[in-house]
Each structure stands twice: as C-alpha cells, then as structure tokens.
C-alpha cells in the first residue's frame, strides 16, 4: 500500500497521519503494535496473510439508530446541503480514513455510494 494519504476537499481526521507499525513498546495509541505489513511469516508478508478491509456502511453511513430510537451519531461529512455533496464528502472522509489506516480494501453496498 502506498504511503500517500488522500485528503479531499476537507480533512476529516486532522492531526492524524499515516498509521504505521511501531512495535509492542510504543505508547502511541494510533500505531500498530504487532501488525507489521512488511514482516514475512512463512512465505508471505503479514499484508498478504491479513487482507484487511473497512466496511463502508458500518464505518461511514450508520447513524446508530436502533429499534429503541433515532441515531445518535452525527458525522461532519453528513452536513452538506445536497445529497450529492454529502455523498462526495462521505467518500472523501472514507478514503482519507482508508489511506491513513493503510487498508487496501473496502466493502460496500451499491446504495452506500449513491447520493
């Protein structure tokens, strides 16, 4: 995965850079302690063994609603004036998150990406 971090029209996770491996002794809460993407185990790297993905809906669309009441999560990317603007902002936030975390895959429902 590239070391490039995607930032769209607005940065949604400011102050957080690319998250990387720092080892077990790191006190950085935003660092990998055990997962080292480049470490070889057997004949593959950890990145090849562990193909992480982020679920788009669960991470960026769900507002916390349940049978007992309305949603409790308000996201900054959900505050636009138009459906298209909100969808674009959500995609910007998602791809910023994916690249900062170094996750090469994501999964989604088609409706997650549409305005």
UniProtKB/TrEMBL annotation:
Keyword Isomerase on entry: yes
Enzyme Commission number(s) of this protein: 5.3.1.5
Catalytic activity: alpha-D-xylose = alpha-D-xylulofuranose
InterPro entries: Xyl_isomerase-like_sf, Xylose_isomerase
Superkingdom, natural source: Bacteria
GO biological process: D-xylose metabolic process
Enzyme class: isomerase
Keyword terms, alphabetized: Carbohydrate metabolism, Isomerase, Metal-binding, Xylose metabolism
Any one GO molecular function term: xylose isomerase activity
PANTHER family linked: PTHR48408, XYLOSE ISOMERASE (PTHR48408:SF1)
Similarity section: Belongs to the xylose isomerase family.
Subunit structure: Homotetramer.
Protein name, entry field: xylose isomerase
Organism annotation: Xanthomonas vesicatoria
């Amino acid at each position: 995965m590239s070391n490039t971090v995607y930032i769209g029209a607005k940065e949604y996770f400011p102050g957080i850079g690319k998250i990387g491996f720092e080892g077990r002794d790191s006190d950085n809460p935003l660092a990998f302690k055990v997962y080292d993407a480049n470490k070889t185990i057997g004949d593959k790297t950890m990145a090849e063994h562990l193909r992480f993905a982020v679920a788009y809906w669960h991470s960026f669309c769900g507002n916390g609603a349940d049978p007992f009441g309305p949603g409790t999560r308000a996201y900054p990317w959900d505050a636009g004036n138009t459906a298209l603007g909100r969808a674009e902002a959500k995609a910007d936030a998602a791809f910023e998150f994916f690249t900062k975390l170094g996750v090469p895959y994501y999964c989604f429902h088609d409706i997650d990406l549409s305005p």
